[in-house]
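User: Hey, my collaborator sent me this sequence without any context and asked if I could get a structure. I don't really work with proteins. Can you help?
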Amino acid sequence: MKKITTIPGDGIGKEVMEAGLYILNKLDLNIDYSPQEAGKELYEKTNDNLPPETIKSAKNTDATLFGAVTSIPGEKSAIIELRKALNVYANLRPVKSYPGVKGIYDDVDFLIVRENTEGLYSQIEETTKEGAIAKRVITKKASQRICDLAFQQAIKEDRKSVTCVNKANILKKTDGLFKETFYKVAKNYPEIKANDFYVDATAMYLITDPQRFDVIVTTNLFGDILSDEGAGLVGGLGIAPSGNIGSENGLFEPVHGSAPDIAGQNISNPVSMILTISMMLEYLNQDYYADKIKQATVTVLKEGKVKTPDLGGSNKTMELAEEINKKLQEIL
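Assistant: No problem. I've predicted the 3D structure and written it out in structure-token form, which is a compact way to encode the shape of the chain:
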């Protein structure tokens, strides 16, 4: 039996969680769910956006499936705090073109490996007389383990290169350390090509020549920005999954936010969540079902008969989930 913590959160997080669990529950898997709460709606009721019992459940289950939360002015981010509590130091964000989905390119396929625990997202800030200061924390330990994982993912996915994205020409101490550590780690993986680009050049190359990338490894803020840019290349956040991996825990979440502007309309795209569940199943060594979910999802996207508004259609969230499940049952 696998134990999974589920945290729907706010807004469309609840809608895509319902759709994702609908798919998951159709599989022949023995899953024990631990439903928990987090986010702005909970904060408004309890003055706490990430209660201790939610963290405890996430730590003590095999994986955690997360929807989305709305940010709260003046409060720390629930999802960032949960990542820290679970020490899920790597954020894996595949960027892939899918048939039937209109993107800028139709032949993109790379992976962004984002350091998840430090950088500017350390949330170490202070107010001064002149304004405010945020500290950017980069350590040897975190840099080494994220670079190691990037090369390991390249080998696992049969990719040929790993690119270190940095700004070491300006951030000479912090990104200088990250870049130096990257090349030290690269020596342990001679079969994988190692190179690096500055983050501004990378942003340009993602638009002009994204096919040059196989695996990108970078720091927290850069990874957050570039992965959303990558999603834009292939059709938007509605088809972008992600997984947060640590040595003991896995936390899986669709890339999109809580989208309060469309919450409650049941028009959110569940594909990001469904592909995120596929990533979670891979993490849980359920590769067969992970692969079948991807197959079914790609088939539905390619056929294009059932599409939510962001994909150019008019279907509801659960209608798309039901169509994917229909294809899934056909290929199982």
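In plain terms: The chain has a mean pLDDT of 96. You can pass these tokens on to your collaborator as they are.
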